[in-house]
Amino acid sequence: MNDRAPIARRKRAPTPPRRLPIPAGGAIRFGPKLYLAQTQPGLEGIAWSEIAARLGEHGGARELARRTVADRAGLTIFHAERIDPLGAMRCAEDLLALVAYRRFAPASAESPRAGATLERVRAVVRDARFIEDALEARARIAPGSRAGRKMRFRVVTRMTGEHEFRRLDLKRMVETAIGERGDHSWRAVEEDADAEFWATMLPDEFILALRLSDDRMRHRDYKAAHLPGSLRPSVAAAMAWLSHPADDDVMLDPFCGAGTILIERAHLGRYARLIGGDRDEAALAAARENIGPRHQPLELHHWDAAALPLGRAAVNKVVTNLPWGRRHGTHEENLRLYPRAIAELRRVAAPGAPLVILTGEIRLMADLMRRERIRPERIMRVSILGAPAAIHVFRNV
Ligand SMILES: C[S@@+](CC[C@H](N)C(=O)[O-])C[C@H]1O[C@@H](n2cnc3c(N)ncnc32)[C@H](O)[C@@H]1O
């Protein structure tokens, strides 16, 4: 990671590819060197765009499928020859290697699957072929991770769709099947595991993956001061990624809270200047603590985003998370704040500048866009810790 890299050596942002095909649905053609990146639902495409950029044209990377675990996770599943550069990924929370896969015929009243499904899961896990490859990949992504003869393992299960068994039954069956394998001496534990298997049961598919990344990818190391309502770092990174980071970026986050978007943008590569502000002193103190002396030049201001002390066309990128009217402010306040704040953003952003705006006030934004005749380039529906929200990407005129 380049956390403490001197500014002059800060890496150039990987270039986001412009157009990436969306994989068709259907079964995954299972084989070696398949990986899975997990993010919040709705952000799978952005995570894949970062993967494609980091691996470059020659990484042999190809997206095979996307899946969602309702309200909990968005998954992009891809093939890659080498994944070492993905240790620095920011738009994903976890990186895993697929080690077993099975597709089931959809259950119906005429052919219920009942116990047979769990027995098939047991067989597919016991015979999983790519665990050794996954452990090797993990040693490259998270150096120091243990892989000896004796292995303590933990199973994390997620289930979506109708099934005739409980999540706990699935967990127990996967544990049994791993314990039956002859490749290592496996022992199931709940804490201090040497390996983590994530078992995902979708309506008609079972996916077993071994976690390659550790908690650093998920929680980052700068979140010293956390505020309620503070954005997940992977979501902040995805928003910054959508602004197409470039060396000459003067990026503004006028509702910066604890500074997550500014920090994530700083980690994506070079920029000219980052400008943040908030009307809440406690939020600015948290942002100062989280940012520390690392990312320069970066300015923080105490201001009202509806009356910014910035000139016309002063910035060339805006990436922000507006108050949702729940933890911050109220819906009634937002009815007044949103039109004024959006007008300010249009004034201070240069013509053609991308404005990337997240909010849970989806209806209010839609009304405002209609009234002001603002056409978004893109609206991405996302689910953030279960709450519906949308990321709007506008091009300033
Ligand atoms: C949804 S939070 C942003 C969270 C931030 N992205 C983070 O990760 O911490 C919205 C922020 O807007 C601030 N805010 C609300 N009204 C404001 C206004 N009129 N001007 C500036 N900041 C405002 C709140 O204090 C809060 O920190």
Could you describe the 3D structure shown?
With 397 residues, this protein is an alpha/beta fold. It folds into 2 domains: 7-218, VC0802-like, CATH 3.30.2130; 220-395, Rossmann fold, CATH 3.40.50.150. The chain is 28% helix and 26% strand. It has helices spanning 44-55, 114-126, 131-141, 167-179, 215-219, 233-242, 260-267, 281-291, 331-348, 362-372; strands at 34-39, 62-69, 73-79, 94-103, 150-159, 185-188, 195-202, 205-211, 250-253, 273-278, 298-302, 317-321, 354-359, 378-384, 387-395. The strands form 2 sheets. An 8-stranded mixed β-sheet has the order 2-3-1-4-8-7-5-6. Helix 2 runs parallel beside helix 4. The two termini are 37 Å apart. The model is unreliable at 1-9 (pLDDT under 50). The protein binds S-adenosylmethionine. S-adenosylmethionine is lined by residues 227, 229-231, 255, 257-258, 260-261, 278-280, 283, 304-306, 321, 323-324, 328-329, 337.
* Category by helix and strand content: alpha/beta
Per CATH, the architecture of the largest domain is 2-Layer Sandwich
Order of helices and strands: EHEEEHHEHEEEHHEHEHEEHEHEE
| Helical proportion, percent range | 25-40%
> How many DSSP H or I helices?
10
Give the distance, in angstroms, between the N- and C-terminal Cα atoms.
37 Å
The top level CATH class name of the largest domain:
Alpha Beta
Give a quick account of the main beta sheet: strands, pairing sense, barrel closure: 8 strands, mixed
CATH topology of the largest domain: VC0802-like
Bound molecules: S-adenosylmethionine
Low-pLDDT runs of 5+ residues are 1-9
Number of extended strands: 15
List the domain count as a whole number.
2
Cα shape: elongated
β-sheet strand percentage: 25-35%
Average pLDDT score: 90
